[in-house]
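PROTEIN DATA CARD
Card holder: Class I SAM-dependent methyltransferase
Chain length: 201
Origin: Streptomyces melanogenes
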Amino acid sequence: MNDTVAGTQGYGADADALAEQYESVTFEEVHGDLLHLYPTTPVRALDLGAGTGRDAAALARLGHTVTAVEPTPELRRRGQELHPEPTLTWLDDALPDVPVLTERGERFGLILLTAVWMHLAPAERTRGMRAVAALLAPGGTLAMTIRSGPVPPGRRMFDVPEAETVALAETAGLRVAHRGGRADLHGRAGVRWAELVFRRP
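Structure generated from the sequence above:
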């Protein structure tokens, strides 16, 4: 996988600056309003679009067995250097179809999609939700944070209606557990984040 993957344009070239940005906020700051919805006993967890692995490493430290999926080689290498947790495995795969994960046939009790979904075009989001839902174990939790606002130069992002994401999840057999939102932690003008959590019955 590389910059030809949907939504990864510009991330490899900016990997150093992005690593500094990602690591400047904590897992707890990013996921604060959602943490009470995440599993408290150890599960297999998946961080899809893991970036530098900040969240994946935090989950590993909480006792989960974590797979961090990142299609941008520069970010994946940086993540492996920064976060060598023994229960954290890195994987080169990408939405919307996550073929490597799908082939492996694993199911996960927690899936994070943090700052990823808005990189997918509408048709890709339909395919992506089906693929992600299929990776979720019975009783599992899917947590999504989705950016809205100005698109940085050289990036591929779309406005994603919250109602569309909810409808796609419900069509894929998931139920809404939380709908919320927050301001941007980096203070970027006009940027907001939708927070959605779904469960597989």
